[in-house]
Write a structure and sequence with these properties.
Chain lengths: 117, 111
C-alpha cells in the first residue's frame, strides 16, 4: 500500500535535547512538506522540499532543520533552539512542484505528537 | 503576504446543511482545497476547485468560489455525525509552489 509513514507517533523530550521525526513515503512524490499544528492556529509550514538535496524554509523554520538525501525520506529535527516545540507535527507529500499541471493534492501522514517535559 | 482565515467553530443539527466559510488575501492562487481531519490523525483531501471555476459539486459537497471577494465556502448537505471533524481551507500558489492552510473549523453535530 502506498502512503506516508511518520514515526514515532508520540515522543517526549526533555528541554535542551534535539529530536528527529521520521517521514517516509513510497508514493514516488517529488515534493515533501513539514507542518506544525497548534490548537486554533491551523497548520503552519516549517520546511518544504521539491527535489532531492534541496529544501526551502517555510513560515516558521527557526529552531528546526531538515535533510532530503533520498526522494522517499524527509526527516525533521527539532533542535533545542526551538522555544516552544510541544505540538503535533504533520508530514505531507505531493506530486506538485508548481504550475498548473496537476491539482497539488497533499497526502498526509498520521502525525507525530511531541511533548517537551 | 498570503493569509487564509476561517471561523474556529460551527455547530449544526443532524440532517441540516453545514456551511463552512474561508477568506484569503492573495488572489494569485491556483487551486483551493478543503481538507478534513479526524481526531488525532492527518488530513485527507475532501475536494478542490481550480481558481477559474465558480462552483464544484461532489455528492453531498458543494464548493463555491467568489474570486472577486476572495471567499471560498464548503456546503455539506444532510450533515451526519460522521461529518464531525476539523475542516481546513487551503490555498495553493503555483508561483511559490506552496500551500497555505487556514486555522481550521471544528464542526460539531447536535442531535
Amino acid at each position: 500500500d502506498g502512503g506516508i509513514t511518520q514515526s514515532p507517533k508520540y515522543l517526549f523530550r526533555k528541554e535542551g535535547q534535539n529530536v528527529t521525526l521520521s517521514c517516509e513515503q513510497n508514493l514516488n512524490h517529488d515534493a515533501m512538506y513539514w507542518y506544525r499544528q497548534d490548537p486554533g492556529q491551523g497548520l503552519r509550514l516549517i520546511y518544504y522540499s521539491q527535489i532531492v538535496n534541496d529544501f526551502q524554509k517555510g513560515d516558521i523554520a527557526e529552531g528546526y532543520s531538515v535533510s532530503r538525501e533520498k526522494k522517499e525520506s524527509f526527516p525533521l529535527t527539532v533542535t533545542s533552539a526551538q522555544k516552544n516545540p510541544t505540538a503535533f507535527y504533520l508530514c505531507a507529500s505531493s506530486t506538485w512542484t508548481g504550475g498548473d499541471s496537476n491539482t497539488g493534492e497533499l497526502f498526509f501522514g498520521e502525525g507525530s505528537r511531541l511533548t517537551v517535559l | 503576504g498570503e493569509d487564509v482565515e476561517q471561523s474556529l467553530f460551527l455547530s449544526v443539527r443532524e440532517g441540516d446543511s453545514s456551511v463552512i466559510n474561508c477568506t484569503y488575501t492573495d488572489s494569485s492562487s491556483t487551486y483551493l482545497y478543503w481538507y478534513k481531519q479526524e481526531p488525532g490523525a492527518g488530513l485527507q483531501l475532501l475536494t478542490y476547485i481550480f481558481s477559474n471555476m465558480d462552483m464544484k459539486q461532489d455528492q453531498r459537497l458543494t464548493v463555491l468560489l467568489n474570486k472577486k471577494d476572495k471567499h471560498l465556502s464548503l456546503r455539506i448537505a444532510d450533515t451526519q455525525t460522521g461529518d464531525s471533524a476539523i475542516y481546513f481551507c487551503a490555498v495553493g500558489y503555483s508561483s511559490a509552489s506552496k500551500i497555505i492552510f487556514g486555522s481550521g473549523t471544528r464542526l460539531s453535530i447536535r442531535p
